[in-house]
Amino acid sequence: MPLFSTLIGRVARPLAAAVCLLTVTVAEAQVTPATPPVYPPPAPPASDTTAADQVGQDQEFATPSVVGMGPSKGLIFHYERMPRFNVASDGQAVGLQDYKSQAEKNARLVIKGYIPFWNKPHLKMLLGINYEREEFKFRQKPTGYELYDNIEDKGLKTLGAQLAIIRPVNAVNWYIFRLKGELSGDYTSQGVNVSDYLRVSSEFLYGWKRSPTFSWGVGLQLGYTFGRQSIYPAVLYNRTFNDRWGVEAIFPARVTARYNASPKSLFFAGYSVDGFNYIIKLRQPLRRDDNIVLRTLELRETEVKFRGRWEREIYDFLWFGLEGGYRYNYAFDAFDRTNNDRVKIVDSKLAGAPYASVELFIVPPRKFLKKTLNK
């Protein structure tokens, strides 16, 4: 944990300043879960109107958010851990044997921050930054297996930035565009070749706000959710059925049921599909069956999580999240990054395992919301 603590210190300082801006500029977008019955339908939230004093009047601009969703997150610290699980790999390159062992540790640290640098009723633009680190520890070290020795010594890192644009068109229609670039792999602080590690993803969704409690949309996503960069359809569905129950989904990547226990306590249950794509620089080159020498591998990881989550306010602007469930590993395979024939160099199977995570996140303070809405 000393490494994780150092990383948190380095990343948190610049992000903390951004949170001050976040609390002021996104205050109008804050939505508090409803505790009274929602019939008759509640007034549209401030984020859906041209000015705060129009709440309860005709809705001017539509957004994908609905009444009852949790607070907007500005700065997020997330730590996740899995216990021991079996690992089995089938080597498919010359000189690379099969391998079976156990991973004694698989942990992830995630730090994210969001800065809304343009927040108008007809146009909202957010800049996001993130740092992630995934670590493995195997039962034997060195394992004698080139891939695992590499990722245990260096860890797998992701450093990224994204631009998100939310454009309300009118009282019904909206669209979202997001562009994200990340450096992802086993690079170190001694130097990073951007062209080697750069990964780009994007998405576009067009939707309809049918009521303050129902919004949906369709679109396309380009990314690594399923390990390999690909384009796949996406359906957004946000709906609050009553003062307690709702659904938040971007199918097929994530579907979650929501239960509003109170304005300060929310429960979630569902599944998510997460994909990671890392570049691994090999210290000892491998040789393919066709005698091509490999010095770099592309590791594609895809997992499905069945999860339950609890989010709770600690104090005004500070919340925590506890999450647990079961991780099913669909793929953990290595490819020659220069080929397009989808031939695996290492075909791995990571056994399913339970997991748990803890999260702290900062949201706009309630006093800023009151000041904004009273203007």
UniProtKB/TrEMBL annotation:
<dbReference type="InterPro" id="IPR046235">
    <property type="entry name" value="DUF6268"/>
</dbReference>
<keyword id="KW-0732">Signal</keyword>
<feature type="domain" description="DUF6268">
    <location>
        <begin position="188"/>
        <end position="359"/>
    </location>
</feature>
<feature type="region of interest" description="Disordered">
    <location>
        <begin position="33"/>
        <end position="52"/>
    </location>
</feature>
<feature type="signal peptide">
    <location>
        <begin position="1"/>
        <end position="29"/>
    </location>
</feature>
<protein>
    <recommendedName>
        <fullName>DUF6268 domain-containing protein</fullName>
    </recommendedName>
</protein>
<dbReference type="Pfam" id="PF19783">
    <property type="entry name" value="DUF6268"/>
</dbReference>
<feature type="compositionally biased region" description="Pro residues">
    <location>
        <begin position="34"/>
        <end position="45"/>
    </location>
</feature>
